Amino acid sequence: MNMKAQKPIKNPQQKLDLAKADTLNCQACGNYLFITSTIIKKISAIMSPNGQEGLVPIEVFSCGNCGQVPTEMLKGTGLEPAEPKLDS
After folding, report:
1. β partners of residue 63
2. Residue 64 has what pLDDT?
3. Rounded to 5 degrees, what are φ and ψ at 19?
4. pLDDT given at position 20
5. Where are the domains of the chain?
6. Given Cys at both, which of 7, 18, 28, 37 links 84, Cβ 3.0 to 4.6 Å?
7. Exposure of 7 in the CB half-sphere (CA atoms within 13 A)
8. Which residue, among 25, 34, 29, 24, has the nearest Cα to 87 in the 3D structure?
9. Are 62 and 33 a contacting pair, CB within 8 Å?
């Protein structure tokens, strides 16, 4: 049996040019700054794998200006996108 230590395989890292990446903007107000927000889902004991009620946090990003959550972030959460609020 060969007990010699093996050298780790090196994967050359590609340089990522973020200047060429698309910037995500808020669909409601056009802002490009987002903050992390948490959606909390309450799971009933019937649905829970361990038979107990539980809370499941789902981290999403919301607009730092108007609070709108991008539509693609809501997929799979069971929530519908909120309609943007119009100022009176």
Report:
1. 34
2. 96
3. -65, -25
4. 92
5. 30-74
6. 28
7. 3
8. 29
9. no
- State the amino acid at position 18 in one-letter form: L
pLDDT of the chain, 88 residues: tens digit per residue? 566 667 766 666 778 888 999 999 999 999 999 999 999 999 999 998 899 999 999 899 999 999 999 888 888 777 776 665 555 5
Q: Hey, what are 26's tokens?
A: 């808020």
Q: What is the pLDDT of residue 77?
A: 78
pTM of the complete model: 0.63
Identify the three-state secondary structure at position 51: coil
Q: Token pair for residue 6?
A: 């093996």
Maximum CA pair distance of the chain?
Answer: 78
Which residue shows structure tokens 């890292």? 13
Separation of alpha carbons 52 and 43, rounded Å: 8
Rg (CA), the chain: 22
Find out whether 32 and 65 touch, Cβ atoms under 8 Å. Answer: no
Q: How far apart are CA 45 and CA 14, in angstroms?
A: 47
